[in-house]
Automatic annotation (TrEMBL):
The protein's name in its UniProt record: DNA-binding transcriptional regulator
Domain named WCX: residues: 233-314
Top-level lineage group: Bacteria
Keyword Cell inner membrane among UniProt keywords: no
Keyword field: DNA-binding
């Protein structure tokens, strides 16, 4: 149901929610609810008569002061960080995302909330349609099989189905991925939402197995794929001194410093999941992002891939490796 079709009682309730978040003008509210300014003015008058504590502010703005936040300073920081991540991930003009950001920000102390809301201008992101987000979220919530057309890189679009067992946001690119059982192939699959088209909910229902544990699926994942049929492999890397400080700062899953080198460099190991060819596909782009500041020591297939791509870059620039 769109805002313009909201019954007045629901619209009044939403106006209250919005005015508790930050000061707003009747013009802003009119655009939000697709009503006339005069209609919103009448709504404000009704709410004032009901004793809702609406204050008039300069600039024809209205606001409802909130109670002090019950969060500790560290809890407020955690909520603020989550809200910022939501903002960086949010597709532009998706009303559900904008509303979610505002509701999350309502948990913050008023002065921090005001800064957060003032720092969230609209983002341009054409990857997701509102229909796609709604279909995927409903499939997960209602336990209905999702049908869609999947556009994998360098492949023709393919009709697929999925029992959505879990949704994960990649720590690498902040994209959303749906994972679960493919009923046609009877196998566990992971799909990137931005590659889905023509989604629709089927009448087929499913049950998520009680022993399904997302943390085990995502264990040792560098992005979201984790174990992809090839098991775990141990990676050994050598970092130059100019990159060592960043490695010491941490934040890399399963990375362990094996040796401090005399020149200030580091040798490290990490365990990651592999694909059916036992290749750590999700890790390669991270390794390459370090450029000449890292050397792949093992396994052999990763070292060969790393060297071959370095040689190709050198070939393009006519420099021998």
């Amino acid at each position: 149901m769109g805002h313009s079709a909201l019954p007045r009682a629901k619209r009044l309730q939403k106006i209250l929610e919005l005015l508790r978040l930050k000061p707003r003008t009747c013009q802003e509210l009119a655009e939000r609810f697709n009503r006339s300014v005069r209609s919103i003015q009448r709504d404000i008058e009704v709410l004032k008569d009901d004793g809702e504590g609406i204050e008039d502010l300069p600039g024809d703005r209205y606001f409802i002061p909130s109670l002090p936040s019950s969060l500790s300073a560290v809890e407020a920081l955690a909520v603020y960080a989550a809200a910022r991540l939501l903002y960086h991930h949010a597709p532009n003009s998706k009303r559900s995302y904008l509303t979610a950001m505002e509701k999350v920000s309502a948990l913050l102390p008023e002065n921090i909330r005001a800064q957060y809301l003032n720092s969230t201008p609209p983002l341009q992101d054409p990857r997701f349609s509102e229909g796609l987000l709604e279909d995927v979220s409903r499939a997960w919530k209602e336990r209905r099989v999702l049908s869609f057309q999947y556009c994998a890189p360098n492949k023709k679009p393919e009709e697929r189905k999925l029992e959505v067992w879990f949704l994960e946001v990649s720590r690498v690119n902040l994209d959303i991925y749906a994972m679960g059982r493919d009923p046609d192939k009877d196998s566990f699959r992971t799909f990137k939402l931005s590659r889905m088209q023509h989604t629709r909910l089927l009448q087929e229902n499913y049950t998520i197995p009680p022993d399904f544990d997302p943390s085990k699926v995502l264990n040792h994942a560098w992005g979201v794929v984790g174990l992809s049929g090839g098991g775990l492999t141990t990676i050994h890397l050598r970092f130059k001194p100019e990159a060592a400080y960043r490695i010491r700062e941490g934040g890399y899953p399963s990375l362990h410093i094996e040796q401090e080198l005399p020149d200030g460099g580091l040798e490290v190991s990490l365990q990651v999941g592999t694909d059916t060819d036992r290749f750590p596909l999700e890790l390669i782009s991270w390794v390459q992002s370090w450029g000449s500041r890292v050397e792949v020591l093992s396994p052999a297939n990763l070292r060969e891939r790393w060297l071959n791509e370095a040689r190709e870059v050198a070939r393009l620039t006519n420099d021998p490796v």
